[in-house]
Amino acid sequence: MNDSLAVPLDVKLMNLTASVLFMGLTTLVLAAGGWWVLRHPAFSIGGITVQGELAHNNAVTLRANVAHKLVGNFFTVDLQQARAVFEGVPWVRQASVRRQFPNQLQVQLEEHVPVALWGPESGSGMLNSFGEVFEANVGDVDADDLPRLNGPERQSVEVLDMYGRLRPILKQVDLDLAELELTQRGGWRATLDSGAEIELGNGSVDQVLTRTRRFVATLTQVTSRYGRRTNALESADLRHTEGYALRLRGVTTVTADVPKK
After folding, report:
1. Residue 138: CB partners within 8 Å, gap ≥ 6?
2. In whole angstroms, how far apart are CA 241 and each of 198, 211, 222?
3. Which residues contact 55 (CB under 8 A, 6 or more apart)?
4. What's the chain's Rg over C-alpha atoms?
């Protein structure tokens, strides 16, 4: 029986070194091959498919405006960065982007649906159906059909909700709400399409609505007493505890002083 000879230490080191070198070389070759594959023109993004109900954008202009902002090819493009690029396009509320083999990107877009103008007339702010403020070209919509809402941006959802509650109440007496503002002090101010202003006061939603219903319930009776209709309203102040004050077009309660004889 022959005893196996022990492998010398230097031979073991040589074998280990050779194995390490082989593995390192293999890794470098694979990395180089991967680098070549990932950056080869054949893997450039060949097209972008856009889906969704688009009223203010179209697939052609989106591709033209966004494609040059995408970094990388089909394999290396950052989908989160691509989504941010699409969501930076005016009117786009949300975007989802995914790869579609072999070299396409598929984009699903949701646009803002404007329900109101937001802020001062000089601005370009609008409010979507979720109560979110966004910036876009106001000229792209029929602004005459949209109310103007205003207030602290963090309370835009609350302002939109209050508008939706107040409008049908005022409609009961043929008054149409054109503007609604939540002031910095928490007070509500309404402007009708006739230009009349109504100070609604502050407080909870229920308190404001209660004052408005009380006003609407007696307005026709008050205006008819002076031979007027509700559209003669010029202003009203509902902040009084036991009632409200109003001004009607062509009606005055001021009596001229009669000169003494």
Report:
1. 117, 124, 126
2. 15, 9, 18
3. 91, 111
4. 35
**203 Cβ neighbours under 8 A, 6+ residues apart:** none
The tokens for 106 are 């598929």
How many CB atoms are located within 10 Å of the residue 160 CB? 23
Angle subtended at Cα 153 by Cα 240 and Cα 122, rounded to the nearest 5 degrees: 90
Tokens of 212: 């408005």
Residue 256 main-chain phi, psi, to 5 deg: -65, 140
Residue closest to 169 by CA, chosen among 201, 192, 138, 194? 192
231-234, long-range: CB within 8 Å, 24+ apart, which pairs?
231/174, 231/175, 231/194, 233/175, 233/192, 233/194, 233/196, 234/196
Q: What's the token pair of residue 62?
A: 């989106």
What's the number of CA atoms in the CB half-sphere (13 Å) around residue 168? 4
Do residues 136 and 56 lie in contact, with contact meaning Cβ atoms separated by under 8 Å?
Answer: yes
234-237-243 Cα angle (round to 5): 120
The H or E element containing residue 207 is helix 205-225
249 token code pair: 């077009």
Cβ(153)–Cβ(164) under 8 Å?
A: no
Interval 171-224: pLDDT, tens: 999 999 999 999 999 999 999 999 999 999 999 999 999 999 999 999 999 999
- The model's pTM: 0.78
User: Each residue of 44-91: pLDDT tens digit?
Assistant: 788 899 999 999 999 888 888 898 898 888 888 899 999 999 999 999
